[in-house]
Amino acid sequence: MERERFSRYLAEFMGCFFLIFTACGAIMVSKKTGVPGHLGISLVFGAIIMIMIYSYGSLSGAHFNPAVTLAFWIARRFSARDVPGYMIFQFLGTFLAALTLKLLFPEVATMGETIPAGTNISAFVLEIIFTFILMTVILNVSTGYQEKGIMAGVAIGGTVFLLALMGGPLTGASMNPARTLGPALVSGNFQGLWIYLTAPFLGAALSVIPGYYTTSKELS
To answer: What are the mean pLDDT values of the chain's consecutive 10-residue runs (220 residues total)?
Structure first.
């Protein structure tokens, strides 16, 4: 694996690790101490995404989400040969972050898992809609497959914040299969897991359709 490609994979790993460590860590701290609460947790999710975009956007594109990577490929903005590597390192980052949190806070019952508060069907539809909105914003503020630029981090981080604020109590507002799978594997709680491994991919893919024929040339 050449150095440049590995550097991009490592950036995806680090972004996913920091996402879970800070955001799911905030959930665990809130469970333990009562703060920062739902508003604060939503802010942490949005803020860490914004920070990671500014940190890694020009290197890996700052996907940090297998559904985002898939959608960029469908939109013909991303090389097919890099899709598996991105996804593997994204999942690995979330898993190791969740494992780290478990070792640091063994007394906290939750790992920040995303679990449906209502029916599975309603959670499935909501996750599709949430991811559709998020990916629509990403496609419209990104350059090629890269989430970078002066306002890209603010726009995407702000979208994550708003969707987490609304959807957190309903589905956990995952919008990200890796974000859900890592904590689920460490906690052993697989309730509704199928929703979060399917709906975000579907929502992200659907967001590509309106602008599919105006996307950039397919990469090899």
So the answer is: 90 98 98 95 98 96 98 96 97 98 95 95 98 97 89 96 98 98 97 98 94 46
Give how far Cα 178 sits from Cα of 17, 47, 181, 216, Å.
Answer: 10, 18, 5, 27
The answer to whether residues 159 and 175 touch, using CB atoms and an 8 Å cutoff, is: no
Closest CA to 116 of 172, 186, 63, 175: 172
CA 181-187-189 angle, 5° bins: 75
Q: How far is CA 70 from each of CA 41, 76, 102, 162, 174, rounded to the nearest angstrom?
A: 27, 10, 29, 23, 16
Report d(CA 105, CA 141) in Å as an integer: 37
Q: Round to whole Å and give the CA distance between 42 and 46.
A: 6
Helix (H) and strand (E) counts for the chain? 9, 0
Residue 143 makes CB contacts below 8 A (sequence gap 6+) with 149
Instruction: Tell me what percent of the chain is helix, strand and coil, each rounded to the nearest 5.
Output: 75, 0, 25
Give pLDDT, residue 216. 43
- Give me the pLDDT at residue 212, please: 58
Burial class (CB in 10 A: 0-12, 13-18, 19+), 117: middle
Q: By three-state DSSP, how is residue 143 classified?
A: strand
